[in-house]
Design goal:
Length: about 425
Amino acid sequence: MNPKGLFIALGLLVVAGGLVLWSNKKADSKKPADTTVKMLTIPDADFQEIREKKVTGEVLDLRREDGKWRITEPAPLAADQDAVGSMVTSLSALNADKVIEDNATDLKPYGLDTPTLDIVITKKDGKTSEVLIGDDVPTGSGAYAKLPGDPRVFTIGSFVKTGLDKKSDDLRDKRLLTFDSDKLTRVELQAKGSAVEFGKNGSNEWQIVKPQPLRADSSQVDSLVGKLKDAKMDLTNPDPDAAKKFGEAPKIATVTVADSSGTQTLEVHKTKDNNYYAKSSAVPGVFKIATDVGDALDKSRDDFRNKKLFDFGFSDPNRVEIKGATYTKSGDKWMSGAKTMDNTSVQNLIDKLREFSATKFVEQGGGDPVLNITVASNGDKRVEKVAVKKQGDRYFAQRENEPSIYEVDGKAVDDIQKAAADVKEAAPEAPAKKK
C-alpha cells in the first residue's frame, strides 16, 4: 500500500474519532442535571421522638417507647405503627426537588418566617434535627422548605408535605380491639343462644370448649377473628349520636378475646335500620362499625361448628372400610387384600367421604343402620368412624365417641353408596410386546 495513502487514512480515522467523542460530549451536556438535594439522612432506628408544631398552634407529639410509637400530644393515644412508620420513612431520607435560593435573607416570601409545619426529630443520642415547611409553591406542585442554620431554601413535593402534615386522628390506632392474633388463646362470643368459647387444641386448631367440647369449623372461627381484628372506629365521618344510638339499640353480641397481654371486650348493638355500634374496653367512646363486622358476630354456636363428618381433609387416607370391604393404600396403589383396585374409583369414593357434611345439628336421631364407615389417615394415627342411620325419610350420622348428631342429606348418602358400589379392580396390565 502507498505510505502516503496510509497516512491519509489514519488521519481521517483520527478526525472521525474526534468527531464522535465531541458528539458524545455534546449530547451529555444536554442531559438535565440531577437537582435533587438531600435535606435529612437519619436511620429509621435512630428516631426517638417526632414533634410537629403547626402554624395554627396545634402540636402533635410522637414518642417511641419499648420499640412502639405512641401519641403523647394532644392526648395520650395508641398509634398506628404502619402510619407512623410511613412518616418516619419520609423524614429519614428527606430529599428536596431543587434549591430555590442559595442564601435567603428574607423568608417571608416563602412562608418560612412563620412555617406551616415545624418538625423537630429527637434521636436516640438526644441530638435533634429540624425541618421547616412553608407555603405551597405558586404552581401547587410542591412547598417551600428549609433547615435551620442552612441559608438555602428548597422545594419539596406536595405529596411529601401531605405525608408529614398529620393530625392525631390520622396516626392513632383505629382498631377497637388491639389483640395480637398470633398470640390469641381464647375467644368467647355471647350472641344468639348460649355463650360459646373457642380455644386451640394441640394441633393449633380451633375447637369449641364451652358450653361443651365440640368440633369447630376453624375457617369460620378464623374469619370471626379476622373481622374482630379489622373492627375499626370511623374517624372520617364520625356519628355524633353514636353513644345515643348505641344506648337505645338492643345488644346483639358481646365478644371477649384473650392474648398474652390480657383480655379485651367488644359490645355490639344493632339499630332498627341495621346499623351496628360498638363499645370497646380497649379504647374510650362508642363508634359505628362496618356491617360485615356486626354480621360476623350475630351468629349462633352452630354457625361455628364443623359440619363435615370426617376430618382427614386434603390429606390422603391410607385405609377405608365401608360396606364390608377394606381398601388399603400400598405405595401408589389401592389394594383390597391381594387385589389391586382401580385408583380412580377409590379416589371417587374418598372425595364423596371428604365432602360428607351435615345439613344441620339435631338433639336426637336414630333409626335403622345404613352405613358404617371407617377412614384411617396420617399413617393410622387418625382413625375416624361414622355410623349412618335412617328414620323415615331422614338420615342421621354420628361420629364414634362424640355426642353430636348430624342430620345429613339423603342424596349425599346415596352418592356414597353408589361410589362404594362402583369401586372395582384395576384393569390387568397389557402384556409386554415381544421384541
